[in-house]
Amino acid sequence: MLANHLFEYPHEFKLESGKTLPGFQLAYTTYGELNKEKNNVVWVCHALTANSDFTEWWPDLFGPGKLYDPTKHFVICANMLGGCYGSTGPLSPNPRTGVPFFHSFPQITNRDVVNTFELLRNDLGLDQIHTILGGSMGGQQALEWTIEKPDLFENLVIVASNAKHSAWGIAFNETQRQAIKQDLTWKLNTERAGLNGMKVARAIALLSYRSHLTYDLTQSEETDEVFDGYKASSYQVYQGEKLASRFNAFTYWILSKAMDSHNVGRKREGIAKALKQIKANALFVGIDNDVLFPVKEQEFLAKHIENASFHVIDSKYGHDGFLIEMSKLTEKIQLFYKQKKLKPVLV
């Protein structure tokens, strides 16, 4: 029942910057089937380096007998524009030249990404979405979309995200991009350009994704006799190599900048006024020791949206708790549906 698809948009697509793309494609994954009323849609927005297969990175939320059951729901997730898992990105051929975009790929924003999702939704004929959910960058996009199309969504679930990317978050992303720039291959137009720099960038990112406690519990030495070759050191190298085996520096660069530009108040007379446009029942979940998206950011969202719910998950994993603490997240979402007297399962 899990199926992969490709949406082709052959027309010029105008970006928020004023630049254009000569069309684009989105790779997307679906799970389950639409019911007769077409009111069982669950739309998932993925995080920075994820793909459209939500069963890979949120496996405990989706499946037979789970919170979102494919026998009850029609679940969909699209690899975001600029990505490298089937959607148009920097390594895609530019139709105007016949060669990959590489460094010429235009800068995009979360609002641009949401606009591509909207075109896909219209193509699929989906007039209502039961629940949209996302974590981290995916949560930013889910928030954008519910502001842009307030009558489309019944429920909004956002985990470890925010209304505006913080100076702290931007500084982390810029430091990572500086690491990529130090790679002498970065100026080249090749698929592997900047790859070693991206490995360092990923190691930097891990420091914001996890916490002091996480490293202390998982990467500390077992004896007092070690003076080199630390577990924490090899872990950082491993994480960089792991990402380099499935990602590219161009996409990392483009999407991290899209995250930096996230601000729902832009051209909407400020953040508070923008958030007031949301009509969906909203749940915001924070991770207690998340240093990248601290809980005050989710609490802020809940305070500025009418009748929104706010919960905190205790975790030793920092920001990555939004991907790891599945049983706790499931519990919070189930409680949300119950309190709002909603049906998480549609028949």
From TrEMBL:
Enzyme class per UniProt: transferase
Amino acids binding substrate: 202, 320
An example molecular function term from Gene Ontology annotations: homoserine O-acetyltransferase activity
Pathway assigned in UniProt: Amino-acid biosynthesis; L-methionine biosynthesis via de novo pathway; O-acetyl-L-homoserine from L-homoserine: step 1/1
Signal peptide (UniProt feature, chain positions): none
Repeat found in the keyword field: no
EC number of the protein: 2.3.1.31
Record's keyword annotation contains Transmembrane: no
Residue positions of the active site: 136, 290, 319
Subcellular locations according to the entry: Cytoplasm
Catalytic function, reaction form: L-homoserine + acetyl-CoA = O-acetyl-L-homoserine + CoA
Keywords of this entry: Acyltransferase, Amino-acid biosynthesis, Cytoplasm, Methionine biosynthesis, Transferase
Domain AB hydrolase-1 span(s) in chain numbering: 41-323
Pfam family, one: Abhydrolase_1
HAMAP family assigned: MetX_acyltransf
Sequence similarity: Belongs to the AB hydrolase superfamily. MetX family.
Subunit record text: Homodimer.
Function according to Swiss-Prot or TrEMBL: Transfers an acetyl group from acetyl-CoA to L-homoserine, forming acetyl-L-homoserine.
UniProt name for this protein: Homoserine O-acetyltransferase
